[in-house]
Amino acid sequence: MTTLLDRLHANIGAVFLGNPGAIDRVMTCLLARGHVLIEDVPGVGKTILATALARSIDCRFARAQLTPDLLPTDLLGVSIYNQQSGQFDFKPGPIFTNIFLADEINRASPRTQSALLEAMSEGAVSTDGITRRLDQPFMVVATQNPHEFEGTFPLPENQLDRFLMRIHLGYPSPEAEARVLDLRPATGRLHEMSPVINAAEVLELQQRTDGVRIEQSLVDYIVTLATSTRQHDDLRIGVSPRGALALAQAARATAVLSGRDYCVPEDITTNILPVCAHRVVTKSHLYNGEGATAERVLEEVVERVAVPG
Q1: Cis peptide preceding 137, ω within 30 of 0
Q2: pLDDT per residue over 25-47, tens digit each?
Q3: What domains can be seen in the chain, in order of their start residue?
Q4: Does the pTM of the predicted model rise above 0.85?
């Protein structure tokens, strides 16, 4: 399994030449059956990273460029009347896939954004009173520009909560940027990629992730971290039980990526920012004032809570 994961990482890294830690994050989300939100300024490789992940897996892949005029039915599908049979035939939308890339998700209207909620949380889509299950594995990889950019609709808290992680890529190092200029991977390598893992192997890795052991002391550690955020003076909303579950699952996936079948404290502490920062709401955020950021509060909580021996 480790060799399989190494091949997947290397295949993505041959095209995405930016922060290698971002590759680890999206692979963690894949193993944990989670969705990932990639937030950063335009031009740093968000879409390339998402597409490279999808093309490295031998499964169905669909992409939708989200715009303000996009309707929920454009994603979910629509029923069309069949004159020959006298019945309505359902035409599935692009959400019926294995890996779905929602490009610039915060440019879609709130109504279209909310259409993804059931698919992301339940792995199903309800249309015309019928619930249709999505094939597994199913993963949403969404990209968005920072909220201060024009023409964007900030994602509501309940939508953000469906993403296992929110990650930032940052600008590449000078050496990596020079390689991008030389190799131009988006115009060549990206289209020539071949899959190195199939859907059945992904499901097997996800099952292996579910079986990773978390000792009771680490479970208590996660609960204490979550409780501390709910009691913090600078937070209006702390980490929910769903957030604590997400942190535990991300820790399991991190252990698998490290070749272990058990968790260690570092599997938790290294994931708390990407897993929890988008789930908490600071008081300064609500009142548009200057104050603590979610990342700083979480770092403070990690420093205060004793790590299990």
Answers
A1: yes
A2: 999 999 999 999 998 888 888 88
A3: 1-182 (3.40.50.300), 211-309 (1.10.8.80)
A4: yes
